[in-house]
């Protein structure tokens, strides 16, 4: 773990805007980030896995390595991930280009978890990341993001533009520094909600 700390610190020194943290995430944050994910979630995409703190926890939750796609921009981190998770697909790429890549044939991904520093990114980049991620997420799936900020890491105009809603999952107070985890899901369209309500009434 001391070696992981050094790797993170050096990566942060080289590019603080891309890494956004000087140390790997702690177990308390990893627990909250992966709390709603299990073996039945299906394929999972992890953005910015770094040294794999969340990845290890996903495996503990029952997610199989072959169901993991790890998207990492830092070349040093990529090499570590390939050695630590040989059964997973590790991609050296910018998470803002997700939509340009054919990672899956259709919307089968159950969850995307992100360690990206969204607060350090431009509005355009954040929209590219979220839009690309949701192009793979199936109905009912979710995007999980942590933040060291006091509020939601994605501004309301972006959520409105992409038709998403944000929900606070929990706070990892014991993490250093303390962090919060948000779940992003597609908003239910009014027409779809009415049809679902009618269907429930008819079956009651």
UniProtKB/TrEMBL annotation:
The name this protein goes by in its record: SAM-dependent methlyltransferase
Matching Gene3D superfamilies: Vaccinia Virus protein VP39
Domain of life: Bacteria
GO molecular function: methyltransferase activity; RNA binding
A Pfam cross-reference name: RrnaAD
InterPro entries xrefs: KsgA/Erm, SAM-dependent_MTases_sf
Keywords, sorted A to Z: Methyltransferase, RNA-binding, S-adenosyl-L-methionine, Transferase
